[in-house]
Specification:
The protein is an all-alpha fold. It is 71% helix and 1% strand. The protein is built from 16 helices and two strands. Helix 2 packs antiparallel against helix 3. The longest helix is centred in the middle third of the chain and has 32 residues. It is globular and about 65 Å long. The model has no long low-confidence stretch (mean pLDDT 91).
Length: 394
C-alpha cells in the first residue's frame, strides 16, 4: 500500500492561497476595528465559533469512529485528523476576543443593563458568569480538545513510520473515555461563548443545536476534502461506497440538526416565557426574518431533499457540492446566532464578516496543511486499512 500512497508534499499553492486569503481578511479586520469596533468583535466571534464548531465536530467524529472501531472511516481518517489539526491555532486565535469581552458580554458589567429585573438576574449568575472563571473554563476546553487530538494524531502518525509501534487499543480506550469530556466541553463552550451574549436567555437544547451544526459541517468538510484528495490521486482505494457512507451521515445529521432546531423553537414557543421567546422575536423582525427563513431552507430543506437521492450520495462531485453548501449554511447559522445580539434591526451582513471568515478560515487551512507536510493521506500501516478499502455498500 505504501508504494501507491503518495506523500503530501506540502500543497504550496494551497498554503500560499490560504495565507493570501488570511492576509486579506486580516487587513479587512484591521479596517473594521477602526471603522466599527463593536461590529468587529461580533463578526469575529461568529467566524470563530464557526471554525471551532467544525474542528471540534471533526474531533468528536474521529473519537466516535475510534470508540466503535468503525471500519470504513479508516480510509479517510487522516483527513479527519487534518481538520482537527487546526485546533492549536484556534486556541491562539481566541486572543483577539479578549480585548472585546466587555463589548460582547453584558454580564461583565451588570450595572450597564437598563432593565432592573434583568440586572438582578445577571448578578445572581455572577458565581458562574465572571471573567476569571470564564477564562479558566475556556482554557480547560482547549486543553481537553487539543490534548486528546494530539495523542490520537501522534499514535496515528507513529504507526505510519513504524508498523511495529502500532497504537493497539489505546485510541479506542482514549476515545471512549474522553468522549464525554470533549462533548461536555463543547456544550459549556456553547453556553459561555454564545448563549451568554444574552445572559438572561436560557435553553437547555442550545448545546445540542450547536453540536449538531458543527458535527454535520465537519462531515461536510470531510466530504469536500475527500473529493479534492481523491481527484489529486492522494487517496488510492476510495470508491463510491465511501462517498455513499459520507452521504448517509450528511443526510442523518442534517435531520438531526433540524430536530434540534425545531424542538428548541417548539419548547420555547409553547412555554411563551418573555425571557426565552425574545431570542426568536429578535430574529423574526426586519431583515432577520428573511435570514431565518433562508436558514431553514439552506441547512435543512434543500440538503434533505437533495440527499434523499441515492445517485447523489454515490456521485463524488455532487456530494462534494452538497458538502460545500452545508458548510456555507452553517456559517449563516452561526452568524444568525451571534450578530442579532449586536444589530437586531440593521442589515444583517457587513464586509467585516467577510474579513473575519477569511482571516480565521485561511489561517486555519494553511496551518492544517503545514502540519500535514511529508505525510500520506492514507494510514498505510493500520491493520484495519485493507478492510476499510474493501468496503462496499449497496
Amino acid at each position: 500500500m505504501s508504494a501507491v500512497a503518495p506523500v503530501f508534499r506540502g500543497g504550496r499553492r494551497l498554503i500560499a492561497g490560504s495565507l493570501g486569503l488570511a492576509l486579506l481578511g486580516a487587513l479587512l479586520l484591521v479596517a473594521g476595528a477602526i471603522v466599527d469596533r463593536r461590529r468587529f468583535f461580533f463578526s469575529y466571534l461568529a467566524a470563530y465559533a464557526y471554525a471551532v464548531s467544525v474542528a471540534v465536530g471533526a474531533l468528536l467524529f474521529l473519537m466516535t469512529c475510534n470508540a466503535m472501531r468503525a471500519g470504513w472511516p479508516v480510509a479517510v481518517r487522516r483527513l479527519i485528523e487534518v481538520i482537527v489539526g487546526a485546533l492549536p491555532l484556534l486556541a491562539v486565535l481566541f486572543a483577539p476576543l479578549l480585548f472585546g469581552l466587555d463589548i460582547l458580554y453584558p454580564w461583565l458589567d451588570p450595572a450597564s443593563i437598563p432593565d432592573e429585573h434583568a440586572r438582578e438576574l445577571v448578578r445572581h449568575k455572577a458565581p458562574y458568569l465572571n471573567l476569571p472563571f470564564f477564562l479558566i473554563r475556556t482554557a480547560v476546553y482547549f486543553a481537553i480538545w487539543i490534548g486528546v487530538a494530539a495523542l490520537l494524531r501522534r499514535w496515528s502518525l507513529r504507526q505510519d513510520d513504524d508498523p511495529a509501534r502500532g497504537a493497539g487499543d489505546r485510541p479506542q480506550a482514549l476515545s471512549a473515555g474522553a468522549l464525554p469530556l470533549a462533548g461536555l466541553a463543547l456544550s459549556f463552550a456553547a453556553f459561555d461563548w454564545l448563549m451568554s451574549l444574552d445572559p438572561t436567555w436560557v435553553s437547555t437544547m442550545f448545546p445540542v443545536y450547536y453540536f449538531a451544526g458543527g458535527f454535520v459541517s465537519a462531515i461536510a468538510l470531510l466530504t469536500v476534502l475527500t473529493y479534492a484528495a481523491d481527484r489529486a490521486g492522494l487517496l488510492p482505494g476510495i470508491n463510491e461506497s465511501h462517498y455513499y457512507a459520507l452521504g448517509r451521515l450528511l443526510f442523518a445529521f442534517t435531520i438531526f440538526w433540524g430536530y434540534a432546531a425545531y424542538f428548541q423553537l417548539m419548547l420555547i414557543w409553547l412555554a411563551n416565557l418573555p425571557g426565552e421567546v425574545q431570542f426568536y422575536t429578535r430574529r423574526s423582525r426586519g431583515p432577520w426574518e428573511a435570514v431565518s427563513a433562508a436558514l431553514a431552507f439552506a441547512q435543512l430543506v434543500i440538503p434533505f431533499f437533495v440527499l434523499l437521492s441515492y445517485r447523489v450520495k454515490r456521485n463524488p462531485a455532487l456530494l462534494a457540492a452538497v458538502g460545500a453548501w452545508i458548510l456555507a449554511a452553517h456559517y449563516i447559522d452561526l452568524h444568525w446566532l451571534v450578530v442579532p445580539e449586536h444589530a437586531p434591526r440593521g442589515f444583517p451582513y457587513h464586509w467585516i464578516d467577510l474579513g473575519a471568515l477569511l482571516a480565521i478560515g485561511g489561517a486555519s487551512a494553511a496551518f492544517a496543511a503545514l502540519r500535514l507536510r511529508g505525510r500520506r493521506l492514507v494510514p498505510i500501516n493500520d491493520p484495519e486499512l485493507p478492510r476499510a478499502l474493501r468496503y462496499e455498500s449497496v
